[in-house]
Structures are given as C-alpha cells and as structure tokens.
Amino acid sequence: AAAARGAWAVPARRLHGTRRRPAPTKPEGVVAAEEFVASLGYDRAVADGAVKALRDSGMPVSALLGTVKTLAGRWEVGEDEGLEALCDSVEKELAEVRGLAKVSITVFPPGATRAEAAHRAFQCTGYEGLSITDLVKKGDGEGARTLGEYLECACAGVMACSTCQVIVDPEWFDKVGEPEEAEQDMLDLAFDPQETSRLGCQITLTKDLDGLVVFLPKGSNNIMDFIPFED
Length: 231
Fold this sequence. Notes:
Layout: H1 2-8, H2 12-17, H3 28-39, H4 44-56, H5 64-72, H6 83-97, E1 102-108, H7 117-120, E2 122-127, H8 135-138, H9 141-150, E3 165-168, H10 173-176, H11 181-187, E4 197-199, E5 212-215
Parallel strand pairs: 1-5
Antiparallel strand pairs: 1-2, 3-4, 3-5
Helix pairs in contact: 3-4, 3-5, 4-6
C-alpha cells in the first residue's frame, strides 16, 4: 500500500511549480481611458481596442485619458474630434476577427424608380450587426458616402426622430419585419410615410438581408428643429 501511494506521489517542488500566477493588472491610466470611451456608448471590446491602438502607437499611459477626452471633443453635442473614426476602425477590425459577414443593400435615391435602377440606384455594404444608418459612417466605399448625402439621423439613433426613414421594398418587408409601437409613433411623424416605412436606425443588417432593397423618401420631418432650448 505504501508503495502504491508512493507511485502516485508528486514531489512538493513540482506542485509548487504548477501554481498559477495572478493575471497582470492593467495600469490605472489604461483602465480610466477604457472606462471613459465605454461611457460614451461604445462596446467594451471597441473601447479596449481603441485604447490599445493608442498604446501601440507609443503613447505613454499617463497621456491616454487626456488623449481620448480630446479626441471625443464636445461629444455631448455631437462634435467629435477623431475618437469616432478610431473606434470605427477598431470595430471593423473586430468584425473581421470575429468572421462577421458583409451585407450589401441596394438604395434608390429620392424619386427614383425600379426602371432607373441601372443608373440611379447605388450599393451600400457593411458588416452584419450594423443598422442602415450605421452604414453612413461605418459602411464601405462610395455608396456609404452617397447614403450620407440623403439620410439624416438627427437624434443619433436613439429613435427620437424620423429623419432616417427608409421605405422597404414590399418584396423584402416580411424579412425586415414590422416596426414596434415606439418606432411606429415616430414613423407617424415622418415625411409621407408608406406602409413599408421603417426607421433606418432600427433595421439591423443580417445575412438574410443581403440584397435588401430600400427607397429613400423625397423629404424628412425633423422634429428636433422645433425643440426649444434655453440659452
């Protein structure tokens, strides 16, 4: 019995060598910078990636928090100074790493018909998980820039306006789905809403929506213009 126990015994020094070392903690400056970026509404992985990109560029830890605050600009009123572009770049890199699919949609500008598709419709492409309004800033190519000339998002995507209204092609409406009550309330205030109208900020791109066709309205009603602000 003693011999059997000895056969399974492990020397104390070998056990000591297998102990796990505590995970290294992040410097306070890194954590503070990541927390600030995340507090602006960015995904935690994006916030961490943005700060890492700054560190990889050679920026000292002590300068990280001040730098991200400077890049954020007057974020309270939507005046960004570079943080948004940095985070968008990180978001695209993460999408590639995660193997997210690219989804393309066809957009008809205001007043265009299917018969004019060959010379008026344009393509927009972005990773699944983005909304149609996200394509303006995070989409690829000329199509995203063209979409930005037509599609406004006055409320920054919090569903407090109807300026990002799109009209879904009837053939695609079942796949896109009907708006929920809160969205419909905003659509009721939109410019000439149609039966298949949706808010672009509420349509999330998926693989099933690759090839989606939407039409842009001839105008928009921006209720944000009529909100009284105190001096």
